[in-house]
């Protein structure tokens, strides 16, 4: 009886040639530059940090816009939590997200009608994952949301 495989020898024969190309190449640096001024100017070095509200509130900061965790500058964060308050205006949607460790104010600015439609689906009590730019003002921390 002849055994038929899903992958013929021409598609995948287990050789290293099947894994060549694409993805992370050894010549690319896995570490951002050590100069902090070049980090803030280079958008490609920015990462999306998964944090809790408590971690956000405890972040070290050298002013109200530069937040540091483990020596890396934190700009963009993602949090998961329950919407505990929501206020809709013509130019912005403001809501509080509670992740069990605290609450953080989030603002989604209206740039097109799709933003208003998307925010219309978000209800108080609903769990959301928020991606946003971390900001600070007068000792308060909040997110400028770019994705929900």
Written overview of the protein:
It contains 3 helices and 9 strands, in the order H-E-H-E-E-E-E-E-E-H-E-E. It has helices at 36-41, 53-57, 113-120; strands at 48-50, 60-61, 67-69, 72-74, 76-88, 92-98, 103-109, 127-137, 140-147. The strands form 2 sheets. A 5-stranded mixed barrel has the order 5-6-7-9-8. Strands 2-3-4 form a 3-stranded antiparallel beta sheet. A hairpin with a 3-residue loop joins strand 5 and strand 6. It starts with 35 loop residues before the first helix and ends with a strand. Residues 5-34 and 36-44 have low confidence and may be disordered.
Which secondary structure elements does this structure contain, and how are they paired or packed?
Elements: H1 36-41, E1 48-50, H2 53-57, E2 60-61, E3 67-69, E4 72-74, E5 76-88, E6 92-98, E7 103-109, H3 113-120, E8 127-137, E9 140-147
Parallel strand pairs: 1-5, 7-9
Antiparallel strand pairs: 2-3, 3-4, 5-6, 5-8, 6-7, 8-9
Keywords:
mainly beta, NA-bd_OB_tRNA, three-stranded antiparallel sheet, 148 residues, DNA-binding, nucleus, RFA2-like, 39% strand, OB domain-containing protein, 3 helices
Question: In summary, what is this structure?
Answer:
The protein is mainly beta and 148 residues long. The chain is built from three helices and nine strands, in the order αβαββββββαββ.
């Amino acid at each position: 009886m002849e055994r038929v495989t899903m992958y013929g020898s021409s598609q995948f024969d287990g050789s290293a040639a099947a894994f060549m190309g694409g993805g992370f190449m050894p010549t690319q640096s896995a570490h951002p530059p050590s100069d902090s001024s070049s980090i803030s100017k280079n958008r490609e070095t920015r990462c999306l940090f998964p944090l809790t509200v408590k971690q956000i509130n405890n972040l070290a900061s050298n002013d109200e816009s530069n937040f540091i965790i483990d020596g890396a500058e934190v700009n963009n964060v993602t949090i998961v939590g329950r919407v505990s308050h929501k206020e809709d205006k013509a130019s912005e949607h403001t809501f509080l997200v509670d992740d069990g460790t605290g609450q953080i104010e989030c603002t989604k600015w209206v740039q097109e009608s799709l933003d208003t439609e998307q925010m219309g689906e978000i209800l108080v009590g609903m769990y959301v994952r928020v991606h946003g730019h971390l900001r600070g003002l007068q000792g308060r921390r909040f997110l400028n949301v770019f994705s929900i």
